[in-house]
């Protein structure tokens, strides 16, 4: 299991290729990548991501541990960036390896649902002359109830 | 103890972190003390339903005890992913 919180970009292709490599008992790998989306029709100058150093790593590790307890997983990877990002940049990725795809898919969705609402990150969109904190969505909180 | 603020709470209060000496027993009691300090605190803590709190880096609620806590953080609902 690996949890990484960093400002620098990560190499998604290399991470995906290296994840669970050589684990011949794992029949399924699921990866998810979150990308900065421009919802301002071309005006997005930057997406600033603030986090809580210390708590972020703890919260992500706890979420990954929880996933390992609930599903049969061979490995889990979570990478999340902070700092100033731009449209098209990869913000984060999760990867899960399991013997069967159901565990890998469900655990990846669980990780995403939880890290959206339970890991201490906050997004601020800089567009035109304004900068606005992205509001948490009720749907994201509601998504946790299915687990 | 150290009190930390993130995102718009940090912007409204004007500092990311400060040292607070308090005898407050719970997060709510600490919030009441902070509110009474200055308008910027009263503004930041006007609606607790818009805020989340962590005591020693664990999410908790406003009724939680802060006895012996080293670090209390206030922030809006998280928007990771």
UniProtKB/TrEMBL annotation, chain A:
Q: Give, as in the UniProt entry, the pathway in which the protein acts.
A: Cofactor biosynthesis; molybdopterin biosynthesis
A single Pfam family, by name?
MoaE
Catalyses:
2 [molybdopterin-synthase sulfur-carrier protein]-C-terminal-Gly-aminoethanethioate + cyclic pyranopterin phosphate + H2O = molybdopterin + 2 [molybdopterin-synthase sulfur-carrier protein]-C-terminal Gly-Gly + 2 H(+)
Q: CDD domains, from UniProt?
A: MoaE
Task: Indicate yes or no for the key word Transmembrane.
Answer: no
Q: Does the keyword Ribosomal protein apply?
A: no
User: What this chain does, per the record?
Assistant: Converts molybdopterin precursor Z into molybdopterin. This requires the incorporation of two sulfur atoms into precursor Z to generate a dithiolene group. The sulfur is provided by MoaD.
Assembly and partners are described as: Heterotetramer of 2 MoaD subunits and 2 MoaE subunits. Also stable as homodimer. The enzyme changes between these two forms during catalysis.
Assigned protein family: Belongs to the MoaE family.
The name of this protein is Molybdopterin synthase catalytic subunit
According to its UniProt entry, this protein's organism is Citreimonas salinaria
The upper taxonomy is:
Bacteria, Pseudomonadati, Pseudomonadota, Alphaproteobacteria, Rhodobacterales
Automatic annotation (TrEMBL), chain B:
* InterPro entries tied to this protein: Beta-grasp_dom_sf, MOCS2A, Mopterin_synth/thiamin_S_b, ThiS/MoaD-like
Which molecular-function annotations from GO does this UniProt entry contain? nucleotide binding
Coiled-coil annotation reads none
Matching Pfam families: ThiS (PF02597)
| CDD domains named in the record | Ubl_MoaD
Record flagged with keyword Phosphoprotein: no
Gene3D superfamilies associated with the record = 3.10.20.30
CC annotations in GO: molybdopterin adenylyltransferase complex
Arranged from A to Z, the UniProt key words for this protein are: Nucleotide-binding
| Family the UniProt entry places it in | Belongs to the MoaD family.
Q: What is this protein called?
A: Molybdopterin synthase sulfur carrier subunit
- The organism is Citreimonas salinaria
According to the entry, what is the taxonomic lineage of the organism?
Bacteria, Pseudomonadati, Pseudomonadota, Alphaproteobacteria, Rhodobacterales
């Amino acid at each position: 299991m690996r949890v990484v919180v960093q400002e620098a970009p990560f190499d998604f292709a290399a991470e995906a290729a290296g994840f669970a490599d050589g684990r011949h008992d794992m029949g399924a790998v699921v990866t998810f990548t979150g990308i900065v989306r421009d919802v301002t029709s071309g005006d997005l100058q930057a997406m600033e991501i603030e986090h809580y150093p210390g708590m972020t790593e703890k919260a992500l590790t706890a979420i990954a541990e929880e996933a390992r307890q609930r599903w049969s997983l061979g490995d889990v990877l979570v990478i999340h960036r902070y700092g100033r990002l731009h449209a098209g940049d990869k913000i984060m990725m999760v990867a899960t390896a399991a013997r069967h795809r159901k565990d890998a898919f469900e655990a990846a969705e669980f990780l995403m649902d939880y890290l959206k609402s339970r890991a201490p990150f906050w997004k601020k969109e800089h567009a035109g002359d304004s900068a606005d904190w992205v509001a948490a969505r009720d749907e994201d909180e509601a998504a946790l109830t299915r687990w | 103890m150290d009190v930390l603020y993130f995102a718009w709470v940090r912007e409204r209060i004007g500092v990311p972190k400060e040292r607070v000496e308090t005898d407050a027993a719970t997060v709510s009691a600490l919030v009441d003390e902070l509110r009474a300090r200055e308008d910027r605190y009263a503004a930041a803590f006007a609606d607790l339903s818009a805020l989340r709190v962590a005591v020693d880096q664990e999410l908790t609620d406003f009724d939680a005890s802060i006895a012996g806590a080293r670090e209390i953080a206030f922030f809006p609902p998280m928007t990771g992913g």
